[in-house]
Amino acid sequence: MSPSAQEADQAGKVVVVTGGGTGIGRATARAFHEDGARVLIVGRSEAPLKESAEGRGGIRWLTADVHSPQAPERIVSAALREFGRIDVLVNNAAVAGFASLEHLDRATVEAQMGTNLIAPLFLTQRALDALEATRGTVVNVGSAGALGHRAWPESSVYGMAKTALDFLTRTWAVELAPRGIRCVGIAPGVVDTGVGVRAGMSPAAYDTFLAQMAERIPAGRVGRPEDIAWWIVQLTRPEAGYANGAVLAVDGALSVT
Q1: Is 255 inside a domain boundary?
Q2: How many domains does the chain have?
Q3: CDD domains recorded for this chain (predicted)?
């Protein structure tokens, strides 16, 4: 397919991306914008959202904590007010933390589960009518670390939420198919998004972690946000219309070693 034909696939579409201020969310918003879509990005902090949208007139931004009870209404209403429709919802916002079982506290667990699992559930629920009107697609961003029978010491809560999100992807695919809505998942591997630093690692420790993981990954490197964004865009194209309920690992083959 020619680049111009590919662009036509996304031209006129409206995409909502949570966690759009950094990392995978920023790369995804920009990838959709480059393909002709209009995009609403959502995040808790204004400055990174503005940076994601800078110089891109088709990207709008909204500050919101996706876990707040008011967030689903605010986000969907903002998208419909700005653009009049929703074709794609990318549930990408996430928070991470590192702690073994004996050191977990309720506030940390509730914060991670709230953002990583409860927020996409209720945002998707609120967006259903808009997605049905466009025969749209929901993309849930999980984690390759939560696939299969692997353990994930000190990331049990994050992994628990992402495993549950994959289950929602499969279940929603079946539930929503009669309404013309698809639901697919992306399971990124180790991607250099800075998330480790935001979760409490020092920059030096995070760099060491990335270097160590690059040696373990069969592809020979850690991922870039653009690696994941490309696949998210592809899964929303008309040609991907028969993919439903699938969770695609994009991790340099680490999860199959």
Answers
A1: no
A2: 1
A3: SDR_c
State which amino acid sits at residue 231: W
| Distance from the Cα of residue 129 to its chain's centroid | 21
String of DSSP letters for 138-193 = EEEE--GGGSTT---TT-HHHHHHHHHHHHHHHHHHHHHGGGT-EEEEEEE-SB-S
The residues of the chain scoring below 70 in pLDDT are 1-9
Quote the pLDDT of residue 112. 96
pLDDT at res. 9: 66
**pTM of the entire structure?**
0.94
Domain of 110, in residue numbers = 3-249
Say which residues have a Cβ less than 8 Å from residue 134's Cβ, sequence separation at least 6. Answer: 13, 85, 86, 87
Check which CATH number belongs to the domain holding 69 and give it: 3.40.50.720
Question: Which position among 32, 61, 83, 158 bears the catalytic label?
Answer: 158
Q: Are residues 253 and 224 in contact, defined by beta-carbon separation less than 8 angstroms?
A: no
| Eight-state DSSP code of residue 43 | E
Q: What angle do CA 244, 248, 251 make, to 5 degrees?
A: 170
- The pLDDT tens digits for 213-243 are 999 999 999 999 999 999 999 999 999 999 9
158 is catalytic: yes
| 154/164 Cα distance (integer angstroms) | 18
**Does 257 map to a domain?**
no
Could you tell me the sign of the dihedral formed by the alpha carbons of 125, 127, 130, 133, in that order? negative
Q: Which of 112, 93, 91 is nearest to 200 (CA)?
A: 112
256 falls within a domain: no
Amino acid in position 31: A
CA-wise closest residue to 81 among 141, 159, 16, 162:
16
Instruction: Answer yes or no: is 27 within a domain.
Output: yes
